[in-house]
Every structure is written in structure tokens, then in C-alpha cells.
Amino acid sequence: MIDRYISAASLTAAVLGLIFLSNPALAQQAAQPAQVQPNGNGVAAAISNEKIEAFTVAHLQVDKIRQEYATKIEAAADETAKQELRSEARKQMIQAVQTSPNISVDEYNAILAAAQKDPVLVKKVQEKLQKPAPAQQ
What we know:
Elements: H1 8-21, H2 24-30, H3 49-75, H4 79-98, H5 105-115, H6 119-130
Helix pairs in contact: 1-3, 2-5, 3-4, 3-6
């Protein structure tokens, strides 16, 4: 069972880790979000609870991959091996988001980018991460 409790520091580390592993294609996709547009007045209100829930489900998977690969990357002997591991981690993270229900890679990246600028959104995400998963219907 995935531990759904995550601290602010862990969420920040995950965000920074994903940014570290991100590639230009993801950045381009995030630059064109369809439903999430930062407006400086707090993005959290513009994102539905359903999207935040979907983001947290995907985020748990992405964070698990990030943690797994961070150790491998740190232990890699040379920069070439590290770069190969980063590439492999990126692919797995993208696949994890693509296979997550109710969220696209674009939406995930947009929410992730918005969370970096909106503490209210970070709080909403943390609250979702700390609540037990709703029963599947």
C-alpha cells in the first residue's frame, strides 16, 4: 500500500526532482495547458477537486519512480550512466501519468507548475494526499 501521507518538504522535493528530470518536450506541453492557467490571483480555485485528486494519484506514482531513480542516479559511476538513468526515469514518469485516470501529461505538468507558485494549491494537494483514497465505484 502506498503511504498517502506526505510532508511539505517531500512534496517540494518531488517537484524539484521532477523538474530536475524533466525534458524540453514536457516543458513545451506544460506551456500549453488547456484547463489550468496561472492568473496571479490564486490558481487553486481554477482547478477542480477531481483534477487535484487525479494529480495526487499520478503524483504518488511519479514520486515513487523519482525516489527509486534518485538512488540509482546518485550511485551511478559516470555522467553517461546518470544521463541514461535520467532518461529512463523520465520515460517511466511520463508513462505513469499517461496511465493515471482522469489526467493528461499536459494537465499534470500545468498543475505541477501552478503548485510552485500557489501555496493554496499546494495545501489542497497535500490535503488530498493525506486523505484515504475514495472507494472505487
